[in-house]
Design brief:
The protein has four helices and 22 strands. It is mostly beta strands and 343 residues long. The protein folds into two domains: 5-49, no CATH class; 56-339, Neuraminidase. It has a five-stranded mixed β-sheet with strand order 1-19-18-17-16, with no helix packed on it. A hairpin with a 5-residue loop joins β5 and β6 (127-132). The chain is globular and about 40 Å long. It starts with a helix and ends with a strand.
């Protein structure tokens, strides 16, 4: 039986419209004489179907909400107490933040390169102390923590940055927290470590009340991952870090790379921040075996030049520090949030 012009036209339209994602049911209705009164309007209103790739599921595993849009995970009610507070001009790249355990009115921070110096600032951003960490070098200091240690209260300074992922090892310097008036620390304990899967770039570190040191890789040179130092800590030795949990399944886009970490003083919460958000995770009885139940706070309204540091304060306070931006003449800035943490 020979093809009719209408049939040939129908086959041609079927092939064209199938390529555009329009179903055959609509086409057959259009070719049906009984539907001739509505075929024009039906074809005019039909639109191709586009299937969007779920980039979050592709890039992240189930334990992290760091790339999720605000609201995708449980949120933490936080309000801005202060923001845009300028830090001392010589502190252009504030890469870490830790509330003092000796004096909660002070915040310890540091530059990410140059002299091995930690700074104490007050709530106005004014410098209250400048202390040299004796025996340390500042290759790429990226985070700081204040936590217990055998001598009482210590500062832990993470020389863990490695933009090219080539360093043979990273080091965390541990010193007694400086007392008022100090200008230099005793000789630092050097806690050196390598990664079990090769060099990694990291900017986030936190220390739990039991002295456990954790490092979260950035997610720029490979998947973001949480590691910890094996216990007991061994100053002077080089140890292999233990892998704790995956944070991402692939490299992260720049706004989602992890730039800072902190643990609450009671060890119940840890914070990991990015350029645009901070995510809080509850610990498991003061320890971390996994990252679950994330609570995300959007930080974009702060308009930070380059958000780097996060430090827990008392009563749900979060201190945030940012590098000063591209110009070396601009100061780093600080913000303070008040957050309501679930009990």
């Amino acid at each position: 039986m020979g093809e009719t012009p209408l049939l040939r036209l129908g086959v041609l339209l079927l092939l064209i419209l199938a390529g555009l994602g329009i179903g055959t049911e609509l086409l057959m209705r259009a070719l049906d004489p009984k539907d001739s009164g509505k075929d024009a309007s039906a074809l005019a209103s039909a639109k191709p179907k586009h299937h969007k790739r779920d980039s979050t599921k592709t890039a992240m595993d189930s334990v992290s909400a760091l790339t999720a849009a605000p609201g995708a995970a449980d949120s933490v009610p936080c309000r801005v107490v202060s923001s845009g507070i300028e830090l001392p001009r010589n502190l252009h790249e504030s890469s870490g933040a830790a509330q003092s355990r000796r004096d909660p009115a002070l915040l310890w921070t540091h530059d990410d390169s140059g002299q091995p110096v930690v700074y104490a600032v007050d709530s106005t951003g004014a410098e209250r102390a400048r202390v040299t960490v004796t025996g340390a070098t500042n290759l790429n200091w990226e985070d700081i923590a204040a936590a217990p240690c055998p001598g009482g209260s210590c500062l832990y300074v993470g020389d863990i940055g490695d933009n090219a992922a080539r360093r043979p090892n990273v080091v965390v310097y541990r010193v007694p927290e400086p007392a008022a008036g100090a200008t230099a620390t005793p000789a630092a304990d050097a806690l050196r470590a390598t990664y079990p899967d090769g060099p990694q770039d990291a900017e986030a570190m936190f220390v739990l009340p039991d002295g456990g040191i954790y490092i979260a890789t950035k997610g720029e040179t490979g998947p973001a991952t949480l590691y910890r130092f094996p216990q007991p800590l061994r100053p002077g030795a080089t140890v292999t870090l233990e892998k704790v949990a995956g944070i991402s399944a692939a490299r992260l886009a720049r706004p989602e790379r992890i730039t800072g970490g902190s643990a609450s003083r009671d060890g119940r919460w840890i914070a990991l921040r990015t350029l645009r958000s901070v995510t809080l995770f509850p610990t498991q009885g003061g320890a971390v075996q996994s990252l679950a139940n994330p609570r995300v706070t959007d930080l974009t309204a702060l308009d930070e030049p380059q958000g780097e540091g996060v430090g827990f304060g008392e009563g749900g306070t979060l201190f945030l520090t940012s590098e000063g931006g591209r110009s070396k003449k601009t100061s780093a800035v600080m913000a303070r949030l008040a957050c309501t943490l679930p009990r």
